[in-house]
Design goal:
- By secondary structure, the protein is of the alpha+beta class.
- It has one domain: Gcn5-related N-acetyltransferase (GNAT) (Aminopeptidase).
- Helix content is about 25%, strand content about 25%.
- The chain is built from 3 helices and 6 strands, in the order αβαβββββα.
- The strands form 2 sheets. The protein has a 4-stranded antiparallel β-sheet with strand order 1-2-3-6, sandwiched between helices.
Length: about 150
């Protein structure tokens, strides 16, 4: 017996294969922390510092990323979200954001749902040259402690 959907599947695979080069894969991890008392103190590797993102320093990310990212961060900040920069001297080498839900229900990126009082940690990145030094974990802990 022939699968009546085999032609549709073949066409769908063909379309997918043509579209695939236009997209890139990004891994997303979703976690839930029941109790913020589980957090350890923030430890920052020697030579680095963690600085809250403010109206005065939000644009400095453009030296690490782009001005478009800086514009996005300004919108996040203006929306009441909380961000942190990992700094090496006066240079941004990492960033991470806590996107806060102050409504009964919030949806991000058309499918990540959180409720009032919860936060989605997103927009995290560390310069490739400084990865493997626990900066990402330090920024995540910093954000969790700031928004609890």
């Amino acid at each position: 017996m022939t699968n009546p959907y085999s032609r549709t599947i073949a066409i769908s695979r063909g379309i997918l294969n043509r579209l695939r080069p236009r997209f890139y894969r990004r891994t997303v991890f979703l976690m839930y922390m029941h109790d913020v008392k589980e957090l350890r103190p923030v430890t920052v590797p020697a030579g680095f510092s963690l600085v809250p993102v403010t109206a005065d320093n939000v644009e400095t990310v453009a030296t690490f990323r782009t001005t478009k990212v800086a514009d996005t961060f300004r919108c996040l900040l203006d929306g009441g979200n909380v961000g942190v920069y990992a700094m090496l001297g006066d240079k941004v080498v990492g960033h991470f954001w806590a996107m806060l839900c102050n409504e009964a229900h919030c949806r991000f990126w058309r499918g990540v749902d959180i409720e009032r009082g919860e936060a989605l940690l997103a927009w995290g990145n560390v310069d490739e040259r400084y990865r493997g030094q626990s900066l990402f974990q330090s920024m995540g802990t910093f954000l969790c402690q700031r928004v609890r």
